[in-house]
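Let's inspect a concrete specimen:
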Amino acid sequence: MPAKKPIRRSQLISPWGVGQMINFPKDESLMVAGLDLWEEKFRTLSDLEEFKVIEERLAKRLGVRDFRLPPDFRDPGHGVTNPSLKIPFVRFPKWHYCTRCGHMENVSIFHSQKPTCSGVSFGSGRSCSSIAPNKRQRLIPVRFIAICPDGHIQDFPFMEWVHGATPTEGNHQLRLRAGRSSGSLSGIEITCGCGTHKTMAGAFNEAALHKIGVDCSGDRPWLGEEAERNNAQHCVQHLVVVQKGASNVYFSQIRSSIYLPQWEKSVDGRLIEVLEKNWGFLTRRMENGKFQRVTFELVAERNFSEDKIDYYTDKLLEAATKRLTGVSNSITDDSEENYRKMEYDAILSEAGGENQDFCVTKNMANIYADTETGGAISKGFTSIGLLHKLRETRAFVGFSRWIPDDGKSLEARKDFIKLGKSISWLPAIVVRGEGVFFEFNEKRLKEWSLKPEIIERIAKLSNNYTSERQKRGQEGRNITPQFVLIHTFAHLVINQFSYECGYGSSALRERIYCNLESESETMNGILIYTASGDSEGSMGGLVRQGKPGNLETIVYNAVENARWCSSDPICIDSHGQGPNSCNFAACHNCALLPETCCEESNMLLDRAMLIGDLDNPSIGYFNVVI
């Protein structure tokens, strides 16, 4: 990718992963190519180690060997641009047109330069034929494309749309003329050199392309697969016409993991530092799943004095073996709830330390002031965890189109972004930050959630949510009052943290710990953390606000501010608002956050779970415990 088209490393994970179109300056639209072409670029590097990310828990869960950082387009050793680190793209959409004369041209996805108008003569209107070739306008991509729910994407079939069937013999030079009679789709006319013409009116109607005999051809241009090249997969889905910048064209599928300490607390900090630095080297030289002592001897020689090489070799080998055994026994399935239970337990047990990428101290809730402002903590929570250090790995596993979750398996998602079976890695980024963890009082939470009026209210919200998922062929979820309460509290306290300590709300994220799959593995917590990867990532401000003397006021103000929304009483009395009516008392004026903060796409929120509604204030959790 040329230097004039820079992309932040994190953007290649989300929102612009493999298979997504990116609009660059000067009206150029390119699509990120598959991992096969990434692999070719990585092979040219003399040192791949700096791009590898080791996260055993997540790697085992996703069935890969390791992860790789998207290239940052620099040679770290010399600070100069390295051409081998360019991320590969293909050109899409292929249909382009001239904004001066309307001439349309279908270019190849591998066209390296932005196409220019060829100067076709037209019988009427402006023409570029009289302009010198080197002064003609560059073509820009059309904004209409077609997608299918299985994730395929292809150009809008302009030829078939204009002619209604296979074009007859003759001159079939297409021309796009827009805004001549109307600002709507009826004002965009496609004309053909054979004399046929048709506007774009009706192109977005349901099954509009199916009615003219055009269905999905299985195109995957990011992998070089196209029907016209006879290497596309067969697909029978109906196509959906969308604009290329529409939000439903692409949904990144991300799996994230909080790093958990893999070393026993008795292991010396110096040993941990050496093992972390050389972990990739040690694991790649394993044989039959076992470490080789000779590799540990090499590491010991480079880091310790000669008279203690044997001693430190034994210590390094012992610590590494225990770590590997612990990871192997920790992941048993792909359940998100079970995966997060390990993080939940690690936070509550104050795992880690200052010499690791995970450091937690826990304060029992009763040490926070039991006053008018502090009672919400001392009575509503069991403990507050202060995460002084955390590391999050976010891995890109695939994408979907049309709907956020298309129901594909993990293996199907991974196969959709690459062709080669030998590729055993996924793109990922690592961000570091800090956080505050709230553990709700389990006894009081259970007593509150058993109230009949609360169960009835959440059942209606759950039905709204589940019915929409079932319409899309997805499985329902068992939404509980505890989940809605914890989720809504997270949104309100993020807003308050932003106000109190200056973080932008988009720099804070939530991580919900509430088991919706099994009642035996209870989790009732929420982690609010910074992991933005920039200057707002870890400055110590969030942990400081979580200490006694500060947090009482923040939680009190978050709850009190929730008692009134500028859209009340409409908001508090709502029985369905937002996407698919999946929120009750929650709107942009009170509880919604930027999409990057929320794990549930700003759904399943209800302020009434915290402070009650106008008719029944007693259903509010904090009205009960305070």
User: Anything to note?
Assistant: Residues 309-330 form the longest helix (22 residues). The first strand starts at residue 21 and ends at 24.
